[in-house]
Each structure stands twice: as C-alpha cells, then as structure tokens.
C-alpha cells in the first residue's frame, strides 16, 4: 500500500523485536525439520519498498540433508503484531497459504511454491507461512514506480508487454471454475445473500467502521450512498478475485510476471472488482506523480486498453467500469484512512482537523461524487 508521502525510513511497519523473532523462528525450524538438520538462519531482511500490512521477511536458512548442508532462499509472510496497529482486522495466514496452493493447482498463474504454514501464534508471536523466494523486479510503492523507476525507464514496447502479460494474469485467476466450491471459506454467508457484490460491499463497509474506531469520514459516507444509488443492473458471475490486484504485487523478469504475490484481500465477486482496483491503483500513483510536476506514465494501464486486452483474452466484456473504479477508490480510501491513523499513532503524522484529509485522494473521491471526474 502507498505511504501517503511519508518516506520509507519514517514508516513503522513492525514493533517486533527482530533479534527475538529470529531466535524463535530458528527454534521453529529446528522443531519442524528432521532431527540432525541443524537449521540456522544465516540472514533475515525486511524489504522496505512495498507493503504496510503483513510483514514480508527474506530468509537465508541453511540445514543439513542427505550428507550435505545447503542454504535455502525463503520468504516468511508474517501477520502483524496487535501493537503495530494492523491495517486489517483479521490476518488469516492459513487462508492465504491455501489460496496460493489452490491457484498453483488450478492455473498457470506464477505463484511461489508454499512450504509450511504455522497457524499457532505461540511459535513466533503471530501466525506465519514460509514459501520460496523468487528473483525478479517489483514496481515499487515507496517511492511509487511512477516517480521514476526501472518501469519508467523501459521502452514503450517493454511497458506494453508488461501491461498485456499482467492483464492476462487476471484472466487466468478469474477463469478458475466453480470458485464457490474451490474457495468455500471466501463465501461463508452465501446462503443469506446470493449477491457476491452485495457481500463484498457490505464487508468493506464493516471494515470502514472498524478502521475508523468510532470516527466517520464524511466523504466515505457519501461514497457508500453513491454506490447504492449507482448499483450495476447486472453483476455477472462471481469469480476468484485476487483482491490487491496491481503490478506492485507482481515480480517481473524481462517484463513478464514470474510471481503473483499478496493474497490477503482475496474474495469472491464480479471480475470488475479486480479490474477496477487494477486500473485505479495505477491511476492513483500516476496522478500522484503528475501532481508533483513529474511526467508520470501516460498511455500505460489506461482503462480502455486494459478492458480491451481482458476481453481479447477472456472473451468477457467488462461492464460498469466507472462504478467499479469508483468502488476501488472508496476501498483504497478506507485503507489510506487506516494507514494514516496508524502513522498518527506512531507520531509520524499529525491528526488533521478535517477527517476527510486522512485520505490523500479525497479530491478524486469528491470529483467522482460530483460527476466531474470522468470528464
């Protein structure tokens, strides 16, 4: 997630004692691996360029097996500590682990191999899982890739290849057959409300109430009313939504995806939920860059091009994208209001007089409400 302009060095991502965590994780490897393996964590690094939710740790772990000692390059995905003022109310790491495995089983989407899941928080303080580490380039969040990165320096042809391949990933995720049977834990209340979009929006509203801790954000209240007034006439079938569908959650080599990461926001719903998020998150980063007088990335991940590529590959024509892009802006507004409250808690930002200023793109939301954004 974006950091609302706070430099990476200033953002509190974890309150965890790193040395204690490493000691406890090594003890966990000792208990998990066969006797005589003698595992040892050689290095543990927390990347700073992306992510403010679950903690991602890069591990080099050596152990003995079959008469030799090898070092294994791994990633631990760790739920945040309660003291870290988490971005989300629930971190179901086991569910993320299961989704990644199912996506690997059912599709050609490149996901890391998953090795172990530990739901018991007593091991290191919070649940976690371990997967393989894949080499590649990630479009950074902090500073956003639109401000200047390997992607802005790429040729138009290279960016076009990355755009097409990234949209293709969405089509393959959405093509998983019978998603309600494959992912029943993503629709526990289906019988009480058959509308996947209604369930999704209701879940986001509940998240909004939780994230505010009793404080409303007027522009978000108006947005939820707007969504109700502009509800799509037809929702379409529910598919597996990646959730945080954006190029910043992909790794690339030669401008082709080699890993699709971060499944904590996965859900069932219309395809356009992912498409709206995919389009809006780039648009947000691009508008942020141009607002600072930078060129941004015009002509990249534009709505019409993304929709056309999706239709070309999947045979499905995306509908009501203005509704779903607005919904994405609302959802991102909730996340931003929470992360800004988090920064206030840790003394990295001051509380604004107007709660709407918790959201960096409040002007975008206001234009969407007024009907002037699309013109």
- Overall pLDDT metric: 93
Poorly predicted segments: 1-9
Number of helices, where a helix is a run of at least 4 consecutive DSSP H or I residues:
10
Total DSSP E strands = 9
Give the number of domains: 2
Q: How is the main sheet built?
A: 5 strands, antiparallel
Helix percentage range: 25-40%
State the name of the first-level CATH class of the largest domain: Alpha Beta
State the assembly state of the protein chains. Answer: single chain
| Helix-strand sequence | HEEEHEEHHHHEEEEHHHH
> What structural class do the secondary elements suggest?
alpha+beta
What CATH architecture label of the largest domain applies?
Answer: Alpha-Beta Complex
CATH homologous superfamily caption of the largest domain: Aminoglycoside phosphotransferase (APH), C-terminal lobe
Q: Give the overall shape, derived from the CA principal axes.
A: globular
Strand order of the largest sheet: 1-2-3-5-4
* Cα gyration radius (Å): 21 Å
Distance between the termini: 27 Å
């Amino acid at each position: 997630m974006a950091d609302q302009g706070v430099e990476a060095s200033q953002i509190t991502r974890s309150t965890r004692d790193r040395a204690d965590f490493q000691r406890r994780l090594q003890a966990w490897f000792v208990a998990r691996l066969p006797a005589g393996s003698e595992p040892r964590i050689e290095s543990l690094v927390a990347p700073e360029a992306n992510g403010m939710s679950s903690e991602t740790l890069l591990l080099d772990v050596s152990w003995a097996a079959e008469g030799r000692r090898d070092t294994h390059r791994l990633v631990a995905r760790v739920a945040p500590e309660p003291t870290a003022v988490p971005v989300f109310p629930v971190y179901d790491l086991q569910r993320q682990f299961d989704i990644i495995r199912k996506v690997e089983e059912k599709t050609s989407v490149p996901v890391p191999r998953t090795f172990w899941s530990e739901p018991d928080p007593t091991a290191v303080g919070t649940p976690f899982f371990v997967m393989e580490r894949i080499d590649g380039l990630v479009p950074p969040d902090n500073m956003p890739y639109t401000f200047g990165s390997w992607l802005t320096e790429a040729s138009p042809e290279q960016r076009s290849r990355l755009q097409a391949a990234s949209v293709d990933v969405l089509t393959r995720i959405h093509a998983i057959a019978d998603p309600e049977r494959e992912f029943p834990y993503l629709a526990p209340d289906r019988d009480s409300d058959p509308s996947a979009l209604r369930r999704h929006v209701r879940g986001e509203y509940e998240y909004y109430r939780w994230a505010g801790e009793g404080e409303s954000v007027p522009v978000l209240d108006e947005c939820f009313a707007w969504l109700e007034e502009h509800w799509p006439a037809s929702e379409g079938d529910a598919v597996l939504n990646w959730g945080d569908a954006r190029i910043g959650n992909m790794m690339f080599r030669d401008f082709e995806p080699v890993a699709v990461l971060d499944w904590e926001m996965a859900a069932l719903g219309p395809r356009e939920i992912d498409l709206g998020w995919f389009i809006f998150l780039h648009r947000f980063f691009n508008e942020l860059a141009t607002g600072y007088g930078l060129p941004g990335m015009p002509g990249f991940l534009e709505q019409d091009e993304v929709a056309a590529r999706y239709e070309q590959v999947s045979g499905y024509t995306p509908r009501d994208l203005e509704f779903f892009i607005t919904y994405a802006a609302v959802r991102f507004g909730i996340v931003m209001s929470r992360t800004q409250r988090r920064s206030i808690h840790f003394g990295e930002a001051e509380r604004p007089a107007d709660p709407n200023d918790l959201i960096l793109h409040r002007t975008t939301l206001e234009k969407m409400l007024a009907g002037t954004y699309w013109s």
